[in-house]
């Protein structure tokens, strides 16, 4: 077989199928499936049968199919993420990372080889449960087309989770964070699943981070699906598509993004997982996909319809969600101490515009300019949605004001992180994260202890409650209080930005005094 020519795949297949323990696990899985089938059958027999209800075989097959598909989805997405989050870490612990580096393979071949080789057992489990579940679900009356879509979603989810874990594992040294990554993923998925249980379950793009929702919608009877899907079908902008296409396309999108990140990490482990201009393209594409899949939702408003406050919440949550994403991106692309000092000394001289543009591609330049562009794209998307779909129900001026305050906090938190990087050469990133945690959590704890909302004005949390008045009722007496709240938040974000910049400036000044420039040392030596 061609894929066996990849040494990493061959190693994974041989180590998995060549062990007696693997076949013991497979026998255990078979016995577990038989035991679950027996329990489901006994439960179905003991139920009172009514006329017109599914037969005993259909009830048993349908429920057993649910269980098998749940195991398939859990193994393909969650277990894969866990295993791949520790993949490169385990290579270093087992002293086989040098073997990985010296293999005559391209980085893409190494990434694919690691994914398949490490997850051979997971692929076997998903294949077994998928086949058994398909047979059971067909007996239970589920359409074959919906079952096949479910398998495609699981396969795409496996690919996205695998490359996400691999890109996270590169650069961690010997530190294992796989369990933490999985816990965060599960908590986030459960939160999204809870949100999907309401009336607005037509938010299809959230399905990729909630695999259980994809499983439920694939196996539910058609008359129990959300009304928009049941009556109108799903759309990508104006193109009619099956609803399953949304999670599949988004999974493939994330898989491509994380594959490129893992490929770059295997080539240059010390570099960021993607160039800055990649981030601009990826964010713009993600905005286009996200708005395209929820265009129906924005127009129709779901089963219960949208009130003005719902549209306000959408705008605020959209800004908050992408604000968090951009903050993480800016932190990941913040330069190291050595790169930043080198850029400050030897950055190209010329017109301001030329210097800024070249700073987008220089690993030593601060990530602020790229972050400004990313945030400008996000604000433009929210303004477009407000104008095109909400017909200007949200005040554009107030929306720009909130986006401006968010920008102050983004730049402030990034400057705090950069201050931590400059403070310590050995543990600067960890210190920067500590600065962020203190800046975000300390005001919240102080507000809880003092029973006063005042400390929250130095965090974005202070905007959540009061700013809604700016949008919901422009003539309300509370509008002035809302504008005052926004002003207080602006001062809070500006204060954080000034503190971070002042601390960074002091550290940079100290560094330039301690270490003379390389060029000056060369002149003196000459």
What do these coordinates show?
With 526 residues, the protein is mostly helical. Helices cover 74% and strands 1% of the residues. It contains 24 helices and two strands. It has helices at 7-17, 20-46, 56-85, 87-93, 97-102, 107-118, 120-139, 144-169, 178-196, 211-219, 227-232, 245-267, 276-293, 295-300, 308-332, 337-346, 352-359, 368-388, 396-423, 428-450, 462-466, 468-472, 479-514, 518-525, and strands spanning 234-236, 239-241. Strands 1-2 form a two-stranded antiparallel sheet. The longest helix has 36 residues, at 479-514. The relative contact order is 0.06.
Going by helix content, strand content and strand pairing, the class is: mainly alpha
How would the global form be characterised? globular
- Given as residue ranges, the uncertain stretches (5+ residues, pLDDT < 50) are 518-526
Side-by-side strand order of the widest sheet:
1-2
Mean pLDDT: 76
């Amino acid at each position: 077989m061609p894929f066996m020519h990849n040494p990493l795949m061959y190693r994974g297949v041989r180590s998995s199928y060549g062990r007696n323990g693997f076949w013991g696990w497979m026998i255990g899985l078979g016995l577990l499936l038989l035991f679950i089938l027996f329990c489901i059958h006994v439960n179905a027999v003991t139920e009172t049968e009514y006329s017109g209800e599914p037969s005993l075989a259909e009830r048993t097959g349908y429920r057993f199919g649910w269980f098998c598909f749940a195991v398939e989805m859990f193994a393909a997405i969650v277990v894969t993420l866990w295993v791949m989050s520790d993949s490169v870490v385990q290579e270093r612990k087992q002293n086989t990372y040098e073997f990985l580096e010296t293999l005559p393979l391209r980085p893409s071949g190494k990434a694919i080889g690691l994914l398949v080789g490490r997850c051979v057992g997971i692929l076997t489990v998903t294949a077994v449960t998928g086949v058994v579940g398909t047979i059971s679900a067909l007996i239970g009356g589920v359409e074959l087309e919906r079952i096949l879509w479910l398998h495609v979603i699981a396969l795409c989810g496996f690919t996205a989770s695998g490359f996400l874990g691999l890109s996270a594992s590169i650069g961690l040294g010997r530190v294992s964070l796989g369990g933490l990554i999985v816990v965060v993923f599960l908590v986030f998925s459960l939160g999204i699943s809870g949100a999907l249980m309401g009336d607005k379950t037509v938010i299809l793009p959230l399905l990729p981070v909630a695999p259980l929702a994809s499983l439920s919608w694939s196996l539910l009877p058609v008359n129990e699906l959300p009304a928009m899907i049941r009556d109108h079908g799903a759309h990508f902008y104006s193109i009619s598509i099956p609803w399953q296409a949304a999670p599949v396309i988004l999974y493939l999108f994330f898989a491509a993004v994380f594959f490129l990140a893992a490929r770059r990490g295997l080539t240059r482990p010390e570099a960021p997982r993607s160039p800055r201009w990649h981030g601009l393209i990826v964010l713009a594409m993600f905005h286009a996909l996200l708005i395209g899949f929820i265009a129906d939702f924005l127009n129709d408003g779901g089963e219960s319809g949208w009130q003005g406050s719902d549209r306000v919440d959408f705008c605020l949550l959209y800004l908050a969600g992408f604000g968090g994403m951009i903050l993480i991106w800016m932190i990941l692309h913040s330069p190291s101490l050595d790169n930043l000092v080198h850029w400050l000394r030897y950055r190209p001289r010329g017109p301001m515009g030329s210097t800024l543009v070249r700073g987008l591609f220089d690993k030593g330049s601060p990530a602020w300019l790229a972050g400004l562009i990313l945030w400008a794209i996000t604000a433009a998307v929210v303004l477009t949605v407000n104008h095109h779909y909400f017909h200007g129900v949200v005040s554009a001026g107030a929306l720009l004001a909130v986006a401006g305050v968010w920008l102050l906090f983004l730049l402030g938190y990034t400057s705090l992180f950069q201050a931590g990087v400059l403070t310590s050469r050995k543990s600067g990133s960890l210190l920067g994260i500590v600065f962020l945690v203190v800046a975000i959590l300390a005001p919240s704890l102080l507000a809880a202890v003092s029973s006063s909302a005042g400390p929250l004005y130095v965090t974005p949390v202070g905007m959540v409650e009061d700013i809604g008045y700016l949008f919901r009722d422009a003539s309300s007496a509370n509008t002035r209080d809302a504008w005052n709240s926004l002003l207080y938040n602006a001062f809070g974000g500006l204060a954080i930005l000034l503190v971070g910049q002042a601390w960074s400036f002091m550290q940079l000044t100290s560094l330039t005094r301690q270490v003379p420039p390389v060029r000056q040392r060369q002149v003196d030596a000459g």
